[in-house]
């Protein structure tokens, strides 16, 4: 045991605590890259992650060595490496839920001229696993797999909150409260949506102009919670839209749930 291990044990931490922190910080650096951020320098990465520049410099070099970042000498900045995309592909192609849901989502989207999406939670955002766009009206908003949307504002996020463990729900609400300039009104909207999910199975939101979306959580055995939504671009009253969309959404959710359960049971 080296001196560093001895010091960590003396402070009550396991010997590999430093390695764990390095891994966590390296992942935070990768998380700093978002759409519109092709290249980021050490200073920008330090600002986005809250890490010291010296720490960022050390970790980016390790990530370059492993291929997860590429260094552009001319720009003195980094871009994401190919392995990141490979991991995303492995995640999507290996998802049984997505493989079973996607064709059923596509059938509904085409038959009813709807946009249909499937998402999961990541911290205070929802990330689309799939988005099939067949809305009746052209929309300025394009949604693709991997895209993030805010949990607090969307039907996807509010549906997830309705079934989240109590500790996770409390943590997310505390995050929203700390960042929202209009928290009392937003809290009422979230609580109303959560109550609606618990009573009716779905909730609605219209956080984008002339777009109405409704969502329902898929609580599938052996899987994290997925959230299914349908949306349309419309000027119709939200009540009229939900009366039409809610039965379609809930039937689709039931079909996906049955398909996943059958796949888990295996051949008869």
TrEMBL record:
GO terms for molecular function: DNA binding; DNA-binding transcription factor activity. InterPro entries: GAF-like_dom_sf, HTH_MetabolicPath_Reg, Tscrpt_reg_IclR_C, Tscrpt_reg_IclR_N, WH-like_DNA-bd_sf, WH_DNA-bd_sf. Residues 83-262 form the IclR-ED domain. Keywords: DNA-binding, Transcription, Transcription regulation. Pfam families: HTH_IclR, IclR_C. One of its GO terms (biological process) is negative regulation of DNA-templated transcription. SUPFAM superfamilies: GAF domain-like, Winged helix' DNA-binding domain. It comes from the Bacteria. This is IclR family transcriptional regulator. It comes from Cupriavidus pauculus.
């Amino acid at each position: 045991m080296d001196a560093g291990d001895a010091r960590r044990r003396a402070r009550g931490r396991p010997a590999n605590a430093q390695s764990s922190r390095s891994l966590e910080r390296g992942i935070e650096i990768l998380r700093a890259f978002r759409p519109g951020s092709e290249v980021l320098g050490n200073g920008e990465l330090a600002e986005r992650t809250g890490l010291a520049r010296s720490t960022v410099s050390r970790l980016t070099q390790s990530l370059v060595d492993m291929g997860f970042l590429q260094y552009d000498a001319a720009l003195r900045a980094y871009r994401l490496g190919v392995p990141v995309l490979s991991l995303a592909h492995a995640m999507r192609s290996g998802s049984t839920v997505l493989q079973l849901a996607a064709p059923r989502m596509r059938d509904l989207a085409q038959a009813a001229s709807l946009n249909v999406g499937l998402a999961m939670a990541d911290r205070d955002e929802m990330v689309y696993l799939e988005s099939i766009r067949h809305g009746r009206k052209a929309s300025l908003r394009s949604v693709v797999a991997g895209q993030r949307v805010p949990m607090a504002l969307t039907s996807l996020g509010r549906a997830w909150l309705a079934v989240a463990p109590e500790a996770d729900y409390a943590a997310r609400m505390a995050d929203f409260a700390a960042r929202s300039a209009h928290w009392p009104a937003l809290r009422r909207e979230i609580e109303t949506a959560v109550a609606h999910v618990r009573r009716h199975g779905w909730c609605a939101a219209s956080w984008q102009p002339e777009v109405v979306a409704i969502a329902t959580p898929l609580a599938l055995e052996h899987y994290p919670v997925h959230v299914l939504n349908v949306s349309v671009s419309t000027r119709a009253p939200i009540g009229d839209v939900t009366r039409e969309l809610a039965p379609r959404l809930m039937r689709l959710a039931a079909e996906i749930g049955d398909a996943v359960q059958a796949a888990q049971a295996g051949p008869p």
